[in-house]
Amino acid sequence: MTTSQPMQGNSTSTVLGRRLGEELIKLRTAAGMTQPHAAKALTASTTKVAKMERGWVPMRDPDIRTLCELYGVADPTVVGGLLELAKVDRERRKAKGWWNDFPGLGDMHEYVALESAATAINAWQLTFVPGLLQTPDYIRALRQDAPPAERRGDDEDFVAARLARQRRLDDGQPPISLRAVMYEAALRNLIGGAEVMRAQLEHLGQVARQANVSLQVLPFSTGARHGMNCTFNVLSFAEPGAMDVVYMEVPFTRLWVEGGEAAARHVELFERIAAQALGEHDSLEFITSLSREL
């Protein structure tokens, strides 16, 4: 697990870059080589090799081929997979997203960039409606209680940025697939008051009818369940070699789990929570019933 560190000087650490670096570290270690060995083969500094292995800089195809030769890796499938990862990573770094025009996002930029590239998101929420499903007034109400350090930029710019994120649910990229499971508390928490919450619940009822959106509710009646001590999103990507990324917000920081067993366990946990929740039809009826109570 790592904390979010999207920028270091003029370098950017990306998910695919870190995945590529991890694969190269495994190959180097298996070959009994050190970073100075790699640096000598590349006619580069050890510092540059360290940045490559940590995903801080994009990697050139000739460098990957040189390292594979040094490490004794000749399998065309392995080499080709590394080259493809590097290619997609370079293309991702060059992309200029709409989120760059919203400074109020603060350190949410890395997450929003990943969200824009993802093909599927599984979201488990305990206390709030997921960001991709929030109404403007609900967003404004949440911002009112945000600490000054996190409330950077104009509130309306922040609202506009979050609404821009929501376009991924119905744009033609194709639209992202969203599965959201919400604990009953998230739906009963009167964010912004009864009127704002009623409109929010009605919005959930509308968006739940989209083919690419699945909403489920975990009711209080299920009792204590594993996973009730955390909230997380799992982002999945279409690119070859791309790993699932788990994103969690905790007080004063954001945490990432990138691929491997830890990410797989979060995927399993989400599926276990979803299996214990109400089905989509019953969840929609539950949401509708709550909105009528307000």
Notable traits:
single chain; 294 residues; alpha+beta; 434 Repressor (Amino-terminal Domain); Endonuclease, Chain A; 7-stranded mixed beta sheet
Number of helices: 12
Specify Rg, calculated over alpha carbons. Answer: 22 Å
CATH superfamily of the largest domain: Endonuclease Chain A
Instruction: Give the strand content.
Output: 5-15%
Largest sheet: 7 strands, mixed
Short description, anyone?
The chain is an alpha+beta fold and 294 residues long. It contains 12 helices and 9 strands.
Explain how this protein is built:
The chain has 294 residues and is α+β, with helices and mostly antiparallel strands. The protein has two domains: 2-94, Orthogonal Bundle (434 Repressor (Amino-terminal Domain)); 101-293, Endonuclease, Chain A (2-Layer Sandwich). The chain has helices spanning 15-30, 35-42, 46-53, 61-70, 76-94, 109-117, 136-144, 155-166, 184-188, 194-207, 260-276, 280-293; strands at 2-3, 7-8, 11-12, 120-125, 177-183, 213-218, 232-236, 245-250, 253-258. It has a seven-stranded mixed β-sheet, with helices on both faces. The chain has a two-stranded antiparallel ribbon with strand order 2-3. A hairpin with a 2-residue loop joins strand 2 (7-8) and strand 3 (11-12). Mean pLDDT is 86; it is low at 1-11.
Helix-strand layout with pairing:
Elements: E1 2-3, E2 7-8, E3 11-12, H1 15-30, H2 35-42, H3 46-53, H4 61-70, H5 76-94, H6 109-117, E4 120-125, H7 136-144, H8 155-166, E5 177-183, H9 184-188, H10 194-207, E6 213-218, E7 232-236, E8 245-250, E9 253-258, H11 260-276, H12 280-293
Parallel strand pairs: 4-5, 5-6
Antiparallel strand pairs: 1-9, 2-3, 4-7, 7-8, 8-9
